[in-house]
Amino acid sequence: MMGACLMNRWLIFITFLCALTNVNEALSPDEVEFPEDPDPCNWKGVTCDSQTKRVIALSLTHHKLRGPLPPELGKLDQLRILMLHNNALYGSIPAALGNCTALYLQNNYLSGTIPSEMGNLSALKDLCTRTSVQQRLQYIQAIQELQEEIKLLQIPNEKLNGEGLNGLSYSELSSIENMLNQGLVVVEEQTDKAYYDFATMQIVESVVMGMDWTDKLEKEDLAYQARLSRRRTAVRNKSRELRLSPQDSQQEHSHDHEELMLTIESLKIEKKRLLLLSQRMIGKELDGMSYAELYVLGFDITRALMNVMQEMDKIKHAARVSKESISLDTTMALCD
Q1: What residues make up the domain containing 241?
Q2: Distance of alpha carbon 142 from its chain centroid, rounded?
Q3: Which of 30, 218, 223, 288 has the least C-beta neighbours within 10 A?
Q4: Any residues with CB less than 8 A from the CB of 70 and at least 6 apart, and which?
Q5: Eight-state DSSP code of residue 53
Q6: Domain tally for the chain?
Q7: What span, in angstroms and rounded, lies between the C-alpha atoms of 18 and 196?
């Protein structure tokens, strides 16, 4: 009976290990040699009472364990020391761990309040709270840095799309025009190559599906890419509006560490997206683009070029008017 009870406790322990998904398989049952050694007290990281053979300490630090702390750990009722610091655990601390006299959980992603059942652990609240606050501040700092980087990337992206050109000098506009012209040449070359592959595939498909079907598919693909282009324009306009609008107060950030991490990942994706879109406007990073994508991209570059040239014409016109005005003033002065 006693042996069965002991085995049940170790089944709980194994379940706990399996429940914690690990990054890059940093820890697995094979690595801690569960099958080879029938005595769990000999497993690495496990300490048992020499007489009762019950688990009194568990140490799995620096194992890249990821997941919530399961309350089933509390069923190891003789567990007194639990060391899980420097992993990737998240969620709250289970109240079932109230039997422990020492918990080492720093450098994880734990959140929430300390359960009242752990009131006897005087050092735990300070340790967990301090670590949680420090991590949250690090996440917020990362978010703010990424937001600033994205703002800086938005400006050239807008200009390469022929937007937000007010206040640029003639030389600055000329530089943008040159980049767009060079990009358009490359995009048109890639579009021609992609169209050859597309037309070849279309001929093959039309034999089976009919020309009407392939024509319809082409139109739908072009229409879809055009909608994406309009959406990108709307996003740029909204982003510029938000960037230029006065900020009344500091942004409020979540206290949920998982939500903060998701925000960071989303901002990283947006940063990468902006870099890619800007590169494509100047004829780079075009690999893998379909004929429809390249066709619409060429249209976007052409539209941006027209906007840039219009601004350049305005500057030239303003300079000509100013020159004529100065000449007229000089002539009138000589007549006087």
Answers
A1: 167-335
A2: 11
A3: 288
A4: 15, 16, 19, 94
A5: -
A6: 2
A7: 53
159 belongs to a structural domain: no
Asked if residue 191 and residue 112 are part of one domain, the reply reads no
Strands 55-59 and 46-48 come out as: antiparallel
Q: What is the per-residue pLDDT across 238-266, written as a single tens digit (0 to 9) for each?
A: 888 878 777 655 677 776 777 888 899 99
Q: Is residue 131 part of a domain?
A: no
Whether residue 12 contacts residue 72, with contact meaning beta carbons closer than 8 Å, is answered with yes
**Rounded CA gap, 172 and 167, in Å?**
10
My answer on whether 182 and 323 are in the same domain is yes
Decide if 169 contacts 318 (C-beta within 8 A).
no
Query: Looking at the structure, do residues 89 and 201 belong to the same domain, yes or no?
Result: no
Residues whose CB is less than 8 angstroms from the CB of residue 194 and which lie 6 or more positions away in sequence, other chains included: 289, 290, 291, 294
- Write out the E strands in the chain: 21-22, 46-48, 55-59, 65-68, 81-83, 88-91, 102-104, 109-110
* pTM of the entire predicted model: 0.59
Q: Are residues 171 and 317 in the same domain?
A: yes
Tokens read off for 119: 């009131």
Q: Tell whether 105 and 175 lie within a shared domain.
A: no
- Residue 83, domain CATH: 3.80.10.10
* Predicted pLDDT at 63: 78
